[in-house]
């Protein structure tokens, strides 16, 4: 079979299962550690990388290791996830927790199918092992990837990898609980300062909102079938756009006219970093305001939303307010090196790549 590796040396590390359990515990406590977990699983299984995704043909909840970032982008951008040949293996995943290319593909098909030749071959990939597990009724797959030279996943390797499926299921459920509590804390934080807030999942459905947001619901702004709707034409179209699972936010704000009250401004803020729950589904934060309300400084919200320390939240607020990093360091009596270190941590936690990205996030929360 093309790409068959006859090297008798085991490619799965002896401590794969033990280290996997330890890494899973860290990932449950801190969901942002899932990419690190995937990287170590890939290394311990003799794979070049891994992709974690839902199997319902949506790329909105997928994460990948850095080694597969480019191929994963092509996978979704070019819509291969809608025509993925490997979905033929889903029955096998449900039956025994794992599937590999050999279960549903012949060598001849690998040589002619566009999925293998146009996508995988061009990315230097060939072999796959998909470990499946369910979280809240949705089937997920941890897809390990190997190159031609690394060889296919042998039967004895498949048997060991299949033992990770129940561990992944348990970790996914526990992570979902942690993420759900985190999203609840975020909306409750806005409740404390009197700001209406709602969180949408990747499909635009409301999964959490506070009582301040509930108080705005009525005949002009409604929640129907889990989605926000409006009677006014333009606002209705904008809210409908938020419900499209496109992976991109089409708007940054919605102005909602009301017949017997002042209009509502709903600001749309993408959740990134640890606030974007992988299994709980948090994707977008809606913050509502009514003319006349006084904006509240977002330092406390930044801490909760992005798990910043008090010092990091203070620095994020300062540089977003116009201070240079040197000026902020002087104001807070810290060294330039400490300020740079804190800013680096802020970028990592918020998903910002530069200060302009951070400014957008902070001002979005402050509106």
Describe this structure in words.
- There is one protein chain.
- The chain has 3 domains: 16-175, Beta-Lactamase (2-Layer Sandwich); 195-291, Beta-Lactamase; 295-367, Arc Repressor Mutant, subunit A, CATH 1.10.10.
- The chain has helices spanning 16-29, 34-44, 69-77, 90-96, 107-112, 114-120, 155-162, 164-192, 211-214, 233-242, 299-306, 310-320, 325-331, 336-350, 355-366, and strands spanning 49-54, 63-64, 98-100, 127-135, 138-146, 197-200, 206-209, 221-224, 227-230, 253-256, 264-270, 284-289.
- The longest helix has 29 residues, at 164-192.
- A hairpin with an 8-residue loop joins strand 1 and strand 2.
- Helix 12 packs across helix 15 (355-366).
- The strands form 3 sheets. The protein has a 5-stranded antiparallel β-sheet with strand order 2-1-5-4-3, with helices on both faces. Strands 7-6-12-11-10 form a 5-stranded antiparallel β-sheet, sandwiched between helices. The protein has a two-stranded antiparallel sheet with strand order 8-9.
- The chain is an alpha+beta fold.
- The termini are far apart.
- It is built from 15 helices and 12 strands.
Keyword list:
single chain, globular, alpha+beta, five-stranded antiparallel β-sheet, Beta-Lactamase, about 375 residues, Arc Repressor Mutant, subunit A, 12 strands, about 45% helix, 3 domains
How much of the sequence lies in strands comes to 15-25%
**What pattern of helices and strands is seen along the backbone?**
HHEEHHEHHEEHHEEHEEHEEEHHHHH
Q: List unreliable stretches of 5+ residues.
A: 1-10, 293-297
* Strand line-up across the major sheet: 2-1-5-4-3
- Look at the helices and sheets and give the structural class: alpha+beta
Principal-axis shape equals: globular
Distance between the termini: 60 Å
Domain count = 3
What level of helicity do the residues show?
Answer: 40-55%
CATH class term of the largest domain: Alpha Beta
From the 3D structure, determine the CATH topology of the largest domain.
Beta-Lactamase
Compute the gyration radius: what is it?
Answer: 23 Å
Largest sheet: 5 strands, antiparallel
| DSSP summary, beta strand count | 12
């Amino acid at each position: 079979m093309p790409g068959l590796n006859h090297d008798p040396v085991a490619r799965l590390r002896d401590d794969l299962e033990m280290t996997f359990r330890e890494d899973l515990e860290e990932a449950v406590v801190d969901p942002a550690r899932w990419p690190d977990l995937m990287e170590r699983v890939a290394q311990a299984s003799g794979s070049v990388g891994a992709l974690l995704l839902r199997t319902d043909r949506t790329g909105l909840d997928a994460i990948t290791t850095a080694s597969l970032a480019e191929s994963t982008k092509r996978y979704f951008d070019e819509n291969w996830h809608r025509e993925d040949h490997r979905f033929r293996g889903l029955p096998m995943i449900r039956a025994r927790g794992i599937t590999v290319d050999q279960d549903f593909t012949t060598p001849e098909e690998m040589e002619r199918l566009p999925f293998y030749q146009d996508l995988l071959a061009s990315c230097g990939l060939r072999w796959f092992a998909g470990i499946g597990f369910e979280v809240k009724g949705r089937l997920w797959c941890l897809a390990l990837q190997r190159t031609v030279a690394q060889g296919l996943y042998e039967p004895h390797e498949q048997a060991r990898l299949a033992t990770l499926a129940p561990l992944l299921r348990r970790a996914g459920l526990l992570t979902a609980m942690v993420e759900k509590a985190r999203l609840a804390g975020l909306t409750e934080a806005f409740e404390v300062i009197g700001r209406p807030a709602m969180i949408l999942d990747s499909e635009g459905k409301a999964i959490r909102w506070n009582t301040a947001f509930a108080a705005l619901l009525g005949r002009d702004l409604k929640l129907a079938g889990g989605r926000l709707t409006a009677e006014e034409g333009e606002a209705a179209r904008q809210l409908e756009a938020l419900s499209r699972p496109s992976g991109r936010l089409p708007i940054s704000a919605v102005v909602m006219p009301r017949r017997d009250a002042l209009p509502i401004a709903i600001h749309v803020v993408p959740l990134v970093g640890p606030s974007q729950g992988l299994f709980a589904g948090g994707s977008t934060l809606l913050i509502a305001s009514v003319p006349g309300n006084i904006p509240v400084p977002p330092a406390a919200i930044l801490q909760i939303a992005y798990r910043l320390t008090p010092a990091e939240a203070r620095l994020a607020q300062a540089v977003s307010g116009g201070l240079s990093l040197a000026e902020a360091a002087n104001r807070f009596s810290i060294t330039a090196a400490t300020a740079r270190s804190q800013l680096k941590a802020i970028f990592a936690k918020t998903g910002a790549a530069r200060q302009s990205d951070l400014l957008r996030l902070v001002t979005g929360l402050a509106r």
